[in-house]
Specification:
With 227 residues, this protein is an alpha+beta fold. The chain is 22% helix and 21% strand. The protein has 4 helices and 8 strands, in the order ααββαβββββαβ. An 8-stranded antiparallel β-barrel has the order 1-2-7-5-6-4-3-8. It is globular, with a radius of gyration of 35 Å. It is an enzyme of class 5 (isomerase). This is Peptidyl-prolyl cis-trans isomerase. Its EC number is 5.2.1.8. Belongs to the cyclophilin-type PPIase family.
């Protein structure tokens, strides 16, 4: 009887242990499921502007081409020197024709020196240009013997002479220090009085070249010679 009681006790203990294990297993919380993230619609890729006619023109045709900077201060008419700086001329005309300069401004004005434009950071927030992919590859310098006199159109660059892209400037006086260091590629033929007017724009207090008033470039209109 004693032996049977011990065996019965052990059997009951085993069942109880097994029962506890089963109960513990049953009480384990179900694994958490990570909610599926909503699908993100693909973002539209910037489109490429249409090719420019300037890339197809001869040197003689480019010499006969004009561009009109239509600014808030008035119009400035430009002619170009493609025989001296063909790549700079084509680059400027291409960007102008594609509307790159629309909505920019003369963002740098250095009294008695230069007025400068072409900065895409000055595009309005709703500018359609922000949805386009322009080619703004750096240009190899095309230094030439053109003196930087008043009215000369030239291209700004960084420390590397071959880093010019979109920033252009117009000289307000004879600037010998720029000769042979910046690529002159055109000049003002009409509207020097507008250039002078822009040069009189007030400068922000404490700044050397930041205008206190926005002088917008509404567009740069290209006038190609008739075929």
């Amino acid at each position: 009887m004693m032996r049977q009681a011990i065996v019965w006790t052990l059997l009951m203990s085993g069942w109880l242990v097994c029962g506890d294990r089963l109960t513990a297993q049953q009480r384990r919380p179900a694994p958490r499921t990570t909610p599926a993230r909503p699908a993100v619609p693909p973002q539209p890729q910037p489109s490429t502007p249409k090719p420019s006619r300037a890339e197809q023109l001869s040197i003689e045709e480019l010499k006969a081409t004009r561009a009109v900077i239509e600014s808030a201060a008035g119009n400035i008419v430009l002619e170009f020197f493609p025989e001296r700086a063909p790549n700079h001329v084509r680059n400027f005309l291409r960007l102008a024709e594609q509307g790159y300069y629309d909505g920019t401004e003369f963002n740098r004005i250095v009294k008695d020196f230069v007025i400068q434009g072409g900065d895409p950071a000055k595009w309005p927030a709703d500018s359609p240009n922000r949805k386009l992919r322009f080619d703004t590859s750096p240009l190899k310098a095309e230094f030439n013997e053109t003196p930087h006199d008043k009215g000369i159109l030239s291209m700004a660059h960084g420390k590397d002479p071959d880093s010019a892209t979109t920033h252009y400037f117009i000289c307000l006086r004879r600037a010998e220090s720029l000769d042979g260091k910046y690529t002159a590629f055109g000049r003002v033929v009409e509207g020097l009085e507008v250039v002078d007017k822009i040069a009189e724009t007030p400068i922000q207090p404490g700044a050397e070249d930041k205008p206190a008033e926005r002088v917008e470039v509404r567009t740069i209109r290209v006038i190609y010679p008739k075929p």
